[in-house]
Specification:
Elements lengths: L1 E6 L4 E6 L12 H5 L2 E3 L2 E5 L5 E4 L1 H14 L7 H14 L11 E9 L13 E10 L11 E5 L24 H9 L4 E5 L7 E4 L3 E6 L2 E4 L10 H12 L3 E4 L4 H5 L3 E6 L3 E10 L2 E4 L8 H14 L10 E3 L5
Parallel strand pairs: 8-9, 8-15, 12-13
Antiparallel strand pairs: 1-2, 1-7, 3-6, 4-5, 4-6, 5-17, 6-7, 9-10, 11-12, 11-14, 14-15, 15-16
Helix pairs in contact: 2-3
The structure holds pyridoxal-5'-phosphate.
The site of pyridoxal-5'-phosphate has 13 residues, from helix 5 and strand 14.
């Protein structure tokens, strides 16, 4: 794994590759007490061209830096971020699955590790990148549509809160809803906006899109949803495939009468929603177990590009090893 420490003496990060292992923390460390923690998630693939590639790492670098600023942490410079993920992939190259069989998931973490008892920012920080081989995110497999339920009890984030950052603190509160949904037979929940309980927000770990004819709508980046790298990419890809894509508040009622609904994220890639349940009413999209057509088309377009099986007109693929 890669580990770099920010120290107040130099006001900069310095570090390098170290063996994977535990982090030793002072019980008074800021992160354990007050939660200064932001993270990222990205994938390295073994591409069809025979090299190891990342996808738009500059986007993850920018999002981590924005989250760091929101939590009063010293942002990791973009060039250090890209160096760290690149070195982590090279050091773990043996663990990158064969093309199309999975990916090497990278988890950059920025933690306020320095001790402080009163509420305040940590005196020092650690930036860590570790890796793990992964397959499909949902248990049915990559292309199996998922059954979601609209969450009625809790909201995920509020306007002017921090839902738009990948802060660790945004994730534990979703577990109670996610676990209840799983117990009831769903894969996950869809959150509604905290102000009116009317508009779609996102899923616990992915963004959401609603399709009607050749028009695709997705909630705008208003600060309460995560600005997904996959979301941004699917907007551009869908437009290049001839769809009109509109970023605007989408009433959940529209999703219930849409042609199809799908989610996007680094972990889920593009995943069709097989059914959506709102206040006990279930809407089935397409045939059970079969991905809906627009989700499938965009899944193929995105994964073809990410694995270099097709062209990369946007220049999104970032080679980590040059061997062809
Ligand atoms: C809450 C949330 N929304 C959306 C996403 C999708 O973002 P991305 O496409 O950058 O993985 C994620 C995953 O990182 C997430 O945690």
């Amino acid at each position: 794994m890669y580990r770099a420490r920010w120290s107040p003496d130099t006001a900069s990060y310095s570090g390098g590759l170290v063996p994977y292992g535990p982090l030793s923390l002072d019980p008074a460390s800021q992160v354990l007490n007050y939660g200064q923690s932001v993270f990222e998630g990205m994938k390295a693939q073994r591409s069809a061209a025979g090299r190891l590639v990342l996808f738009r790492p500059d986007r993850n670098a920018a999002r981590l830096a924005a989250g760091a600023a929101r939590l009063s942490m010293p942002p990791v410079p973009a060039d250090l971020f890209v160096t760290a993920v690149t070195e982590a992939v090279r050091a773990n190259a043996a663990w990158v699955p064969p093309t199309g069989k999975g990916a090497l998931y990278l988890r950059p973490l920025l933690l306020g590790t320095g001790p402080i008892l009163g509420l305040g920012p940590a005196p020092y920080y650690d930036f860590v990148v570790f890796a793990s081989a992964v397959g499909a995110y949902f248990k049915g497999g990559q292309l199996t549509p998922i059954d979601l339920v609209v969450e009625e009890q809790f909201h995920r984030a509020a306007p002017r809160g921090m839902g738009g950052t990948k802060a660790a603190g945004n994730y534990s509160p979703v577990l109670v809803t996610q676990l209840a949904a799983k117990k009831a037979g769903f894969s996950d929940v869809v959150y509604l906006d905290a102000k009116t309980d009317t508009f779609l927000e996102e899923v616990s770990s992915c963004n959401i899109f609603v399709v009607k004819g050749k028009t695709i709508r997705t909630p705008p980046l208003s600060g309460s949803i995560l600005p997904g790298v996959t979301r941004a990419s699917i907007i551009d890809l869908a437009r290049s495939c001839g769809y009109e894509v509109i970023e605007e508040p989408v009433p959940v009622a529209d999703a219930m009468v849409a042609d199809e609904v799908f989610t996007t994220g680094t972990a889920v890639v593009v995943c069709a929603i097989g059914s959506l349940t709102l206040r006990g009413q279930k809407r089935q999209f397409g045939q059970p177990g079969v991905p809906t057509p627009v989700a499938l088309e965009l899944y193929k377009a995105l994964t073809g590009l990410q694995t270099e099986a097709g062209p990369d007109p946007f220049g999104w693929v970032f080679p980590v090893t040059e061997t062809k």
